[in-house]
Specification:
alpha/beta, 9-stranded mixed beta sheet, 4-stranded antiparallel beta sheet, 17 helices, globular
């Protein structure tokens, strides 16, 4: 019988299976019994390890057809203050650590009112010495207003990431996204005028109706703004999203990726990972790199990482599931927030495997070649010219980058894979 998780089987399938942005995937999380007290849990975390702070706002002005993030569009007006009250309660019992970097995502953080945005930024300033640490915030074309961008700069935000996806109106409409070209232009003008040192633009290839010519047009428009970073994502059609059953990843996606890679490299960018390209000479922003230390996540949908435990609120993609989880978050007390009751424990082996997955799939320099001794299956990558071992490091080749989405599932342990397969998505 053919092993569905063998490298041969996975390489024979579609090149873009899913975005391996975490290990283990959140579908491996379960109800913890007994819950873990945060104070005791974090007291065991080495103080010397870097700790990042992540703040999550699960609100957007629209729910894009490809989106499977934990967010809900246009919540009732009274939800914002209730959510920020709950965020304050969670923050009061969160661990106090030396924060090395801050990220503010969602959803769309700039969907908040100006007062609400300032309230969350002030909360971040309570945890981290702003503006001394790197601070990244996500925004959208409709919400990147001069007033909100000025507020972000006042609090020391030095990186803004904006999801454009496509500069062709028909393509974004086909993906279930309401977006006008004039909104995009105004947002990018506002961001550049505000003086953020790092601008990242997200683009998607393989969208419904997209052609080689229209893809090149989007690349040209993105390069016009000389962003310090560009992230390229294939169209992932995930369960319970707006495009589920209505679209599929384009069979030309790999060709479009190769064209974009060649275009960006010739335009003065370097490839950092499958999706991430950085303009040569631009400063490296820590929020763009793989998470190597611990993470304190605040907000409904945010994950927190210690060495031994990853925890969060529950996970859902469908609207009803998200609303139910959000409603529970709004009612949580400080005592409840002081406990981690949903997550996954990581053995020493899983902690090490997480390091390999992040390093190999998300860092151009790769990982220490000694990982071959602990995980001999990695030699298969070298045999297939998907990786090379040079100067004491194992790193992916251009062909390996192309199949990074396949390598994520391949490197997942059998135990975590079994846990993920029994997850019931809602």
């Amino acid at each position: 019988m053919t092993d569905p998780n063998s490298l041969d089987t996975l390489l024979a399938g579609p090149p873009f299976l899913g975005y391996a942005y975490s290990y283990p995937h959140k579908s491996a999380y379960r109800r913890l019994s007994p819950p873990a007290a945060l104070e005791a849990l974090w007291s065991e975390e080495p103080e010397a390890s870097e700790t990042a702070l992540y703040l999550h706002i699960p609100f957007c002005e629209m729910r894009c057809g490809f989106c499977n993030l934990f967010t809900t569009p246009n919540p009732p007006e009274e939800t914002e203050p209730r959510y920020l009250d709950a965020l304050d309660r969670q923050a009061r019992v969160a661990p106090q650590r030396r924060i090395s970097r801050v990220a503010f995502g969602g959803g769309t953080p700039t969907f908040l009112s100006l007062a609400g945005l300032e309230r969350v930024l002030s909360l971040a300033a309570h945890f981290a010495p702003l503006p001394e640490v790197p601070f990244s915030v996500e925004t959208s074309p409709r919400t990147a207003t001069p007033e909100k961008l000025a507020l972000l700069r006042d609090f020391g935000v030095d990186r803004v990431s904006i999801g454009i996806q496509s500069f062709v109106e028909a393509e974004v409409q086909a993906s279930g996204r309401a977006q006008k070209p004039e909104w995009v232009k105004a947002a990018l003008e506002n961001i550049r005028k505000s003086g953020f040192p790092t601008l990242n633009i997200d683009l998607i290839y393989g969208l419904p109706g997209q052609t080689e010519a229209s893809w090149q047009h989007s690349l040209t428009e993105a390069l016009h703004w000389q962003p310090e970073e560009i992230y390229l994502y294939p169209l992932y059609v995930r369960p319970l999203t707006g495009l589920d059953g209505k679209a599929q990843t384009s069979p030309d996606a790999l060709l479009l990726y190769r064209q974009a890679r060649e275009r960006l490299l010739s335009a003065g960018y370097e490839q950092v990972s499958l999706r991430f390209f950085r303009r040569i000479g631009a400063a490296s922003h820590p929020s763009s790199d793989a998470i190597g230390g611990s993470l304190i996540g605040l907000g409904c949908g945010a994950r927190s990482y210690t060495q031994s435990l990853h925890y969060s609120s529950e996970f859902a993609v469908g609207r009803a599931g998200i609303r139910s989880i959000l409603a529970g978050y709004l009612e949580r007390t400080e005592a409840a927030f002081a406990l981690a009751d949903y997550g996954v424990w990581l053995s020493d082996e899983e902690q090490w495997r997480r390091h390999v997955v992040y390093g190999l799939l998300q860092q151009a320099e790769g990982v220490d070649a000694r990982v071959l001794e602990k995980l001999p299956q990695l030699t298969e990558l070298i045999e297939r010219s998907l990786a090379v071992c040079e100067n004491g490091a194992l790193r992916l080749t251009p062909s390996g980058w192309e199949r990074a989405d396949v390598l994520g599932p391949w490197l997942t342990s059998a135990a975590m894979r079994a846990q993920m397969e029994t997850f019931s998505l809602r």
